[in-house]
Design a protein that fits this description.
Aspartate Aminotransferase, domain 1; Aspartate Aminotransferase, domain 2; 428 residues; seven-stranded mixed sheet; 15 strands; four-stranded antiparallel sheet; 2 domains; binds pyridoxal-5'-phosphate
């Protein structure tokens, strides 16, 4: 079909998408009887705390960990209260120390950076490539003799290039803490995300693929890291199997914090976890249907796919050739009834983009003294130039982002595709 200018909804034409918009709460919108049943079991037994209660109850949190570990094919999973907590705990578990450097991508939620700073380490920012995940070439350029760990982020559900990243880590003897907050259930070359690195960290926050409102999971194959993570997340592992026994490994027991998951959260997370595969299947089908319908359009370049099978398919992202057409293109899609957005700059600074991380640029800490920014271990002080990642800025600036909820119908998908085709045929 050929369109003319007046067909565009922004110019008064009919909307391509007339069906109701569905918000991006993939698991949240699926909450139903299964979650209620799990939660009611906790309430009826009054067993709200993992380690004790008035009745003998199998712990929901423990069950969640067992099912997650089995699914990821890892030795250990540890449930915590958020992915930020999982990342902090993971960094500490693998032995990141004050003043160490951790390489993180310039496109991630600010929580990844905050976790490095909470572990008193220095975030070193690397560019992302066309997959919008960390660029392995830039990792190599950013490695120094202070680098201790890499934190690849499976951003917007896309697996990072884990083969190259693990290769770099091996050659330079670096730890890997995978931020899989946005990529629950994703994989790379057949292996589950979060199971490549020394530690994998997942989020169960409300916007994520599955959710318990808040929550996180740590995954590891390493017994010592698991024990250290237990110690840190639970005030020196007060509840470990024999809390007065001497440590089994050196460096196993130390001061910690309380990042424990409650049984109510565990109950919701358990029911959600059992829906993960169904949610992924529907998002993948929807993304494929939209992408196939627009793949011949000239002038749009899809985000690079590191592994099409393993992509969780939470979003369709494509680049326009010119930065200055993005705003008009997105406004045209919105007028068509499609909830499209840019990534870099749409009025509100996006907390996922390095260039907007003023707290990092200005090293805004709660105290005047201490690592990583005000301590002798990190001399000379790290500096953060907001313009330091031009490749990331260019890609994000030219990006158009469309969420892919699992609840989309084939009709929704076809209408989204038609809206993209309409806008592209007139505006590009
Ligand atoms: C990439 C990334 N890392 C970490 C986090 C932090 O997760 P949480 O909110 O569970 O602490 C998020 C959450 O938005 C995220 O998107």
């Amino acid at each position: 079909m050929r369109y003319s200018k007046s067909d565009l909804a922004i110019n008064g034409g009919p909307k391509a998408k007339t069906t109701k918009n569905i918000p991006m709460y993939p698991g949240g919108l699926e909450i139903g009887e299964e979650e209620k049943k799990e939660v009611m079991e906790v309430l009826e037994s009054k067993y709200l705390f993992r380690y004790y209660g008035p009745a003998e109850m199998p712990s929901k949190v423990k069950k969640l960990e067992e099912e997650y570990a089995e699914y990821l094919q890892v030795k250990h999973a540890l449930a915590v209260n958020s992915c930020t907590s999982a990342l902090i705990t993971g960094l500490i578990a693998v032995g990141v120390e004050p003043g160490d450097e951790v390489i993180v991508p310039a496109y991630t939620f600010f929580a990844s950076i905050a976790a490095v700073v909470a572990a008193k380490a220095v975030p070193v920012i690397a560019e992302v490539d066309k997959s919008l995940t960390i660029d392995p070439d830039d990792i190599e350029r950013k490695i120094t003799d202070r680098t201790k760990a890499l934190m690849p982020v499976h951003m917007r559900g896309m697996p990072a290039k884990m083969d190259r990243i693990m290769g770099i880590a091996g050659r330079h003897n670096l730890k890997v803490v995978e931020d899989a907050a946005q990529a629950n259930g994703g994989s790379f070359k057949g292996k589950k995300l979060g199971s490549f690195g020394d530690i994998g960290a997942f989020s169960l926050q409300y916007h994520k693929i599955i959710t318990s409102g808040e929550g996180g999971i740590i995954a590891t194959n390493n017994d010592l890291y698991y024990t250290r993570a237990q110690a840190y997340h639970d005030v020196a592992a007060c509840w470990r199997k024999d809390r007065f026994a001497p440590p089994e490994y050196p460096g196993e027991i130390f001061f910690g914090v309380n990042f424990r998951m409650s049984e109510l959260t565990g109950a919701v997370a358990l029911a959600q976890f059992r829906k993960l595969e169904s949610i992924l299947k529907r998002m993948r089908e929807n993304k494929r249907r939209i992408k196939d319908a627009v793949s011949d359009i000239k002038g749009i370049e899809f985000r690079e796919t590191n592994d099409a099978e393993g992509d969780t398919a939470v979003a369709l992202i494509f680049y326009l050739p010119e930065l200055n057409t993005v705003e008009t293109f997105i406004n045209a899609l919105i007028a068509e009834g499609i909830e499209a957005d840019g990534i870099y700059n749409r009025g509100v600074p996006d907390w996922h983009v390095y260039h907007h991380w003023v707290i990092l640029h200005n090293k805004m800490m709660p105290a005047k003294k201490g690592c990583p920014f005000n301590c002798p271990l990190t001399e000379p002080r790290p500096e953060y130039d907001p313009n330091a990642c031009p490749a990331t800025k260019d890609l994000l600036g030219r990006s158009v982002h469309i969420d892919i909820p699992p609840q989309l119908t084939p009709e929704d998908c076809d209408q989204i595709a038609e809206g993209i085709r309409k806008a592209a045929s007139i505006l590009l």
